[in-house]
C-alpha cells in the first residue's frame, strides 16, 4: 500500500478501533449503538449503487447473540467495515430498516438496511424561499438543518457561483431540491468517509473531492486464483456518441435586452440539444447552463468499468491504473460510482471463508481529464403549478412598484423573515392588454392576495395572474348582484354593467358621489343621465360640439347662466317660436359688433312687464321694410329727446301726423295743416312768409 493510498483509506478510528481489528476469518464487521462489534456477525452485504449525487444503500445480513431491538435501532448511526486490518475501509450510515428473520444455527438472524446520512433528506419535504443566495449557501443551509450533529457539511467550491434572486422549494424533498440547486451550477454532492465521521461535501471538481490516489494494477486472471486487493481482474471501457452542442434559450423580463440564446459546442459528437425556459438571468446564465448540460454529455462519452477486490472505491476516489496491455487505457481516473458485494457466511460456519474471494467491487470510472457534471435536474412538477402570494409595500396604501410596474410579493409558502417588500425579486403582473407605452394596469394594494404562475413553468420566476377573492377580499360581484359586471377602485370609483333581463343599466360613478353617468333601458323608458351631486361640471371640445335632441331640451340653472361665444351665436327655431323670459331683467348686448335679431317669416315681439329700454352707443335705426311701424304708449307719455336735430321724414306719399283730434299734418304733397279748436302761437317774434296768405 502506497502512502498516497493510505490517505484515501484512512477512514477508521485508528489502530485501536475494535471495528477494524484484524481477524483471521473475518472480512466485515458492523457497529451499532450500544453493541460491540463482536456482539453480531456480518454474513453478507450488498450495495448496488454507491454514487456521486446519490444516497447509498447497504443491505446487511447479520447474526447476533441476542435479538435486536429494531425500534431502538431505527434512525441510529452505524459503521460498516468493508475490510479489516491493513485493508480497513469504513462506511458510515443510518439504520432505516430492520427485518427480524428468526433464530438460526449461529444465533438470531436479521437483515439491516443502512443508508447514507443523505437518506434523511429524502423524507424531509419543505416549502421555503431563499433570496439572494448562491447554490452552495442554499445547499449548506438545507444540509445542516437536515443532517444529524455527527455529520459535517463542507462546501469546497473553488469558483464564484452566481447569486440567485429567488430560489423556491415548493413541496419538494430536500434531497431533490439540493441536487436541483447544485446541478444547475455544475456542482456535485457526495458523502466523504472520514475517521471522525461522514462529511457531506459540496464540490465543483469530483477529482479533488477526496484526497489521495489509489494505485491499482490490471492483472488478467487465469484459473481459480485471483490477485490481491489492489488488482483489477476485469476491465471494460466504452466510447459513446453524444450531442455535439447544447443551446439554451429563454425569455426573462428582467433582462429584456439580453435574452439571446446561450450556445456551447464541443469538439466531437453529433446533433444539438435545444432547451427552452430552463433558467432566467439573460444570455450569460443561459450559456452557463448550456455548458453544464454539455459537460454532463461529455462525462458520458467515454469511461471504464472495472472489477476488483479493492475495498476503498467510492465516489470521488481517484485511482492510477497500470498494467493494461492497451497503454491508452492506463492512467488516472476518478470513481463515479461503485457497487459492493461481500459474503463471509461460509467463514462464520467454520469453512475456509477467509481464503476465498468474499468481496467484489464493480466501479465506473471517468478519466481525470474529463470534468464530471451531473445532468441538471429539471424544475419540480409541484413548482410548475399556481402559487399564492401577498403583495407588499413599504408605504401605507401603496404597493412597491418599480419603474417597469413590477411588484414585490411574499409567497404564501414563505415562512422566512425577509423585510417588507424584500421577499421576492420584481414580480410582473400579466395584463389583458399592453404594448410599448400603452396598455391596461389596475395597481394592486399591499395585503392583496394574488394567484401566480411560474414563467415557463419556473416557480422561481413568478408572474401575477390576478387577485384571489376571499372573506378578506370580498369581490364586487356576489350572490347579491349576480347580473352585475363591476370594476371598482379602492377609492370608490366604479364602472358597472347591469345585465338584468328586465332593465339593463350602465353606470360610471366617481368616488364620494362626485359625479355619475348612467345609461339605462327598460320596457318603459330609455334614459341617459350625467350628474354631479356637488361641485362643478365642465364640457370642453377642442373642435365642434354638437348637441342634438329628438324631443324637448331643457336647461335648468339655479344660479347665473352665462354663454360666452368668441364667434357668432345663432339661436334658431326652425318651426316654432323662440321665447326669452326674465323675472327681473333681460339684457342683450354686444361689446363691439352689431346686435341683430330677425324673424325671417314670422313676427318678432319684445315685451316687458316693467320698463323696456333700448339704448345704442351709436345710431339707432328701427325699420319696417314693408308694413307699418308703430310706437304706442297706451297708458303713458311718449318722449322723444335728442341732443341734436330731430327729424321726422316720410319718403313716400303718406302724411306725417302729430296730434290727436287735430294737430299737425304734413301731407305727402308738401302741404302743412295745423288744425285745432284752439290754436295758440306765441313767441317773442313770429314771422309768416308766403307768396299768398289767405283767410276764411
What does this structure look like?
- 8% of the residues lie in helices and 33% in strands.
- The chain is mainly beta and 696 residues long.
- Among the domains are: 54 residues; 83 residues, Gp5 N-terminal domain (OB fold (Dihydrolipoamide Acetyltransferase, E2P), Beta Barrel); 47 residues.
- The strands form eight sheets. The chain has a six-stranded mixed barrel. Strands 22-21-26-27-23 form a five-stranded mixed sheet, with no helix packed on it.
- A hairpin with a 4-residue loop joins β5 and β6.
- α4 packs antiparallel against α5.
- It is rod-shaped.
- The protein starts with a helix and ends in a 21-residue tail after the last strand.
- The N terminus is likely disordered.
- InterPro entries: T6SS_RhsGE_Vgr_subset, T6SS_Vgr_RhsGE, Vgr_OB-fold_dom_sf.
- This is Type VI secretion system secreted protein VgrG.
- It holds the Pfam family Phage_GPD.
Key features?
696 residues, mainly beta, OB fold (Dihydrolipoamide Acetyltransferase, E2P), five-stranded mixed sheet, 35 strands, disordered N terminus
Q: Concise description?
A:
This protein is mainly β. The chain is built from seven helices and 35 strands. A six-stranded mixed beta barrel has the order 12-13-17-20-19-18.
Amino acid at each position: 500500500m502506497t502512502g498516497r493510498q493510505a490517505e484515501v483509506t484512512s477512514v477508521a478510528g485508528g489502530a485501536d478501533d475494535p471495528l477494524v481489528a484484524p481477524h483471521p476469518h473475518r472480512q466485515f464487521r458492523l457497529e451499532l449503538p450500544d453493541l460491540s462489534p463482536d456482539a453480531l456477525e456480518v454474513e453478507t452485504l450488498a450495495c448496488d449503487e454507491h454514487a456521486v449525487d446519490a444516497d447509498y444503500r447497504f443491505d446487511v445480513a447479520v447474526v447476533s447473540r441476542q435479538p435486536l431491538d429494531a425500534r431502538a435501532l431505527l434512525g441510529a448511526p452505524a459503521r460498516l467495515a468493508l475490510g479489516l486490518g491493513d485493508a480497513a475501509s469504513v462506511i458510515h450510515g443510518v439504520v432505516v430498516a430492520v427485518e427480524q428473520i428468526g433464530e438460526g444455527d449461529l444465533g438470531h438472524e436479521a437483515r439491516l438496511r443502512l443508508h447514507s446520512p443523505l437518506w434523511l433528506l429524502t423524507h424531509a419535504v419543505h416549502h421555503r424561499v431563499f433570496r439572494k443566495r448562491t447554490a452552495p449557501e442554499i445547499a449548506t443551509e438545507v444540509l445542516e438543518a437536515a443532517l444529524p450533529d455527527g455529520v459535517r457539511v463542507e462546501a469546497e467550491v473553488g469558483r464564484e457561483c452566481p447569486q440567485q434572486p429567488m430560489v423556491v422549494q415548493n413541496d419538494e424533498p430536500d434531497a431533490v431540491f439540493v441536487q436541483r440547486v447544485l446541478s444547475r451550477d455544475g456542482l456535485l454532492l457526495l458523502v466523504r468517509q472520514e475517521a471522525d465521521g461522514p462529511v457531506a461535501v459540496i464540490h465543483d471538481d469530483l477529482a479533488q473531492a477526496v484526497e489521495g490516489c489509489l494505485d491499482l494494477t490490471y492483472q488478467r486472471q487465469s484459473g481459480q486464483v485471483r490477485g490481491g486487493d489492489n488488482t483489477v481482474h476485469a476491465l471494460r471501457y466504452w466510447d459513446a456518441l453524444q450531442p455535439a452542442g447544447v443551446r439554451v434559450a429563454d425569455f426573462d423580463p428582467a433582462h429584456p435586452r439580453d435574452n439571446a440564446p446561450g450556445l456551447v459546442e464541443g469538439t466531437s459528437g453529433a446533433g444539438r440539444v435545444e432547451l427552452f425556459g430552463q433558467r432566467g438571468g439573460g444570455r450569460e446564465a443561459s450559456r452557463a447552463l448550456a455548458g453544464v448540460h454539455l459537460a454532463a454529455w461529455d462525462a458520458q462519452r467515454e469511461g471504464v468499468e472495472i472489477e476488483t477486490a479493492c475495498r476503498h472505491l467510492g465516489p470521488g476516489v481517484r485511482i492510477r491504473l497500470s498494467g493494461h496491455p492497451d497503454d491508452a487505457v492506463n492512467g488516472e481516473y476518478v470513481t463515479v460510482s461503485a457497487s459492493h458485494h461481500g459474503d463471509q457466511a461460509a467463514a462464520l460456519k467454520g469453512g475456509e471463508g477467509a481464503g476465498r474471494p468474499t468481496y467484489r467491487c464493480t466501479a465506473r470510472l471517468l478519466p481525470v481529464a474529463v470534468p464530471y457534471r451531473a445532468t441538471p435536474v429539471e424544475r419540480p412538477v409541484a413548482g410548475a403549478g399556481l402559487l399564492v402570494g401577498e403583495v407588499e409595500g413599504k408605504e401605507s396604501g401603496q404597493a412597491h412598484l418599480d419603474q417597469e410596474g413590477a411588484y414585490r410579493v411574499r409567497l404564501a409558502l414563505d415562512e422566512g423573515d425577509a423585510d417588507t417588500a424584500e421577499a421576492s425579486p420584481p414580480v410582473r403582473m400579466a395584463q389583458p392588454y399592453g404594448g410599448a407605452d400603452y396598455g391596461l394596469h389596475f395597481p394592486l394594494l399591499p395585503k392583496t392576495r394574488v394567484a401566480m404562475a411560474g414563467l415557463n413553468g419556473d416557480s422561481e420566476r413568478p408572474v401575477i395572474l390576478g387577485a384571489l377573492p376571499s372573506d378578506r377580499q370580498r369581490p364586487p360581484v356576489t350572490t347579491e348582484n349576480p347580473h352585475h359586471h363591476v370594476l371598482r377602485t379602492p377609492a370608490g370609483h366604479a364602472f358597472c354593467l347591469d345585465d338584468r333581463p328586465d332593465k339593463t343599466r350602465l353606470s360610471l360613478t366617481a368616488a364620494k358621489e362626485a359625479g355619475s353617468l348612467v345609461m339605462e333601458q327598460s320596457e318603459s323608458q330609455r334614459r341617459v343621465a350625467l350628474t354631479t351631486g356637488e361641485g362643478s361640471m365642465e364640457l370642453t371640445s377642442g373642435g365642434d360640439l354638437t348637441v342634438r335632441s329628438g324631443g324637448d331640451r331643457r336647461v335648468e340653472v339655479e344660479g347665473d347662466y352665462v354663454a360666452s361665444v368668441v364667434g357668432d351665436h345663432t339661436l334658431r327655431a326652425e318651426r316654432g317660436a323662440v321665447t326669452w323670459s326674465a323675472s327681473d331683467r333681460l339684457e342683450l348686448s354686444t361689446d363691439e359688433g352689431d346686435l341683430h335679431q330677425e324673424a325671417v317669416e314670422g313676427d318678432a315681439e319684445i315685451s316687458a312687464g316693467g320698463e323696456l329700454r333700448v339704448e345704442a352707443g351709436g345710431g339707432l335705426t328701427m325699420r319696417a321694410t314693408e308694413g307699418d311701424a308703430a310706437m304706442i304708449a297706451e297708458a303713458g307719455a311718449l318722449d322723444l329727446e335728442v341732443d341734436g336735430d330731430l327729424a321726422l321724414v316720410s319718403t313716400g306719399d303718406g302724411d306725417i301726423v302729430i296730434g290727436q283730434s287735430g294737430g299737425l299734418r304734413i301731407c305727402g304733397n308738401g302741404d302743412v295743416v295745423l288744425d285745432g279748436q284752439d290754436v295758440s302761437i306765441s313767441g317773442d317774434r313770429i314771422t309768416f312768409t308766403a307768396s299768398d296768405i289767405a283767410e276764411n
